[in-house]
Amino acid sequence: MKLSPVVLREILEDIAEEVSRRLRTELVEKKQIVMESDAGGDKARAFDVEAEKIILSKILDRIGCTLVVSEELGCRSYCSEPDYIAIVDPVDGSFNFTADIPWCAVSIAVAYYKRDATMKDIVASVVRSVHTDTTYSYSNEEGCLVNGSSAKPLAPEEVIVGYFEHPRALRVLEKFWELYGKRTRVRSLGSAAMELTHLAAIGRALGFVDACSKLRNVDIAAAYSFSRACGCLMTDLRGRDLGVVPITRLVYKIPVVASRIKEIHELLLKACQETNLSDAPTYVTRP
Known about the structure:
The chain is of the alpha+beta class. It has two domains: 5-150, Fructose-1,6-Bisphosphatase, Chain A, domain 1, CATH 3.30.540; 159-286, D-Maltodextrin-Binding Protein, domain 2 (3-Layer(aba) Sandwich), CATH 3.40.190.80. It has seven helices and 17 strands. Helix 4 packs across helix 7.
């Protein structure tokens, strides 16, 4: 018998709590150790690899036969006929962790296995802040929870969060301000999972935009399920819900526009479209 979404959520919370604690203790000494390239071709940090090993061991021990899609390992099945899919980012915000910037998270999502599973099939997830011990979790039987209680949306501040390193992203902001009728504050904090859960889904920011297509499914899978359950719109630049993104393999170059406020989401989309970013190719997959 397969584990229920509630039980899966509880297991993921336990795993994320342990990994967060160990990142602050024994793994903190491995911040500067660089290892071989990860599945995406980037240099991997020792703490990322060790955190992933802990998560993998706990998943196989407590959940069972699982196809794991992860930042460091890529896509790997640990049995011939898996019952579950786990989408793992052991440290979302690795650069922040390395640089002692206290904004990063352990991010894990689980779905029941099927060959064509996508993010809309996720049944349980967790995003746990490494430094504050705040836990954002989800099951499809309970909805979105913060530290075990139902999430309560808050009044947003006049701020847009996301990734803005490329000049074209700045053009999106300028166009959004023009459409919105005034300038907002802007923050780029370096952990999409945290920004999408704490800021966009809970409502502390007007919205989130990554017009540069920097993100992968492992970065946003847990945040997607939580955010959608909280009533947050989360789409690509063409307005397509990100529930269609596959989770049985690594997927790259996913643009994200998110907001709890429909009018803000529409203005962010329009800003992307009027700066010709909605025509950019997206969703690059890797086995």
